[in-house]
Amino acid sequence: MINGTGSAIQAPLGDNGVRRPLRKARAIGAWSIAFAALALVVVVVIDILISVVGKGAQGLSWKVLTTQTSGISGGLENAILGTLMLILVSTIIAGPIGILGGVFMALFANSAVANVLRYITDILSGVPSIVIGYFGYTVMVVQWGWGFSMLAAGISLAVLTLPYIIRTTESSLRQVPKSYMEGALALGMTSTTALRTVLIRPALPGILTGLLLAVSIGMGETAPLIYTAGWSNFNPTFQMVKNPIGYLTYVVWTYLNEPYASAHQLAYTAAFLLILIVLILHILVRLLQRKPALQ
To answer: Which end of the chain is more exposed for a tag (fewer CB within 10 A), N or C?
Structure first.
């Protein structure tokens, strides 16, 4: 470099000298560790999928899908229908509350209230599922006299999945530029109309992803359902209380511990069906996300 008097000034080493190769080496090392961790996770997931899908698909048949469980054999009709009904009940309860809570935290609550609600949500998401199940057992099953039932299990799953719906809804709405809301209000729209017609549409993919995440978490739970849903070899009815219900995760968790090949096969088939249901729900959500963009 040349100063104003024409004499040369030596450039500092800093970023352009010795430190640049060191920073580059650190970056390469960090990325290498990240890719190695990702590869490890992918390998484990692929190994589990191959094992579950390979063994579970062998036992999949029309008879398994249309007959009820009998002891450690039979079919999975009662467990499949019970799982779907439990997820439906929990989503009906947690979905509106979670979405409205996320909307309130993202758009209407002041920073102090939002921080408190966010802190409570984080605590709730960290509570072990078995604690929620035991709470549901002591309060709903015993104290309120509901017994093992669909309603007690659905509320327990709703409490378990509610934090994920709230946080994903809030995060999705916060990613929408504030100018959208400001422009809608400037055009004379009310806050409710602007929310419904301007903000929800760009945030919808994230909200639906949060719902899918909540459904997937609920479908994979066993501990809270053991305390609240019990187990039944019969197909579920619309009786919400004092009526145990079957579900797929009970088959997976219980039948793998049995010393019988038929029980093991039924457990792998139940696990395969859980993966299949989640995959179908994922595809449906992706199709719903595309629909608004096509209109």
So the answer is: C
CA 221 – CA 216 distance, rounded (Å): 9
Interatomic CA distance for residues 269 and 280, integer angstroms:
16
Residue 126 DSSP code: T
Task: Examine residue 185 and state whether it is found in any structural domain, yes or no.
Answer: yes
**What percent helix, strand, coil does the chain show, rounded to 5?**
75, 0, 25
Q: How many domains does the chain contain in total?
A: 1
Q: Token pair 């511990």 is at which residue?
A: 257
Q: Which residues have a Cβ under 8 Å from the Cβ of 73 and sit 6 or more positions away?
A: 262, 263, 266
Is 27 part of a structural domain of the chain?
Answer: no
Looking at residue 123, which CATH number applies to its domain?
A: 1.10.3720.10
Average pLDDT along the chain, 295 residues, taken 10 residues at a time? 52 57 85 93 90 87 90 88 94 93 88 90 90 94 94 94 92 86 81 82 86 88 92 91 93 89 91 90 76 44
Q: In this structure, is residue 170 part of a structural domain? A: yes
75 C-beta neighbours (distance < 10 Å), count: 20
| pLDDT value for 294 | 36
Does residue 29 form part of some domain?
Answer: no
Distance, C-alpha 47 to centroid of its chain: 22
Helix axes 77-103, 248-255, angle to 10 degrees: 120
Range of 232's domain?
A: 64-294
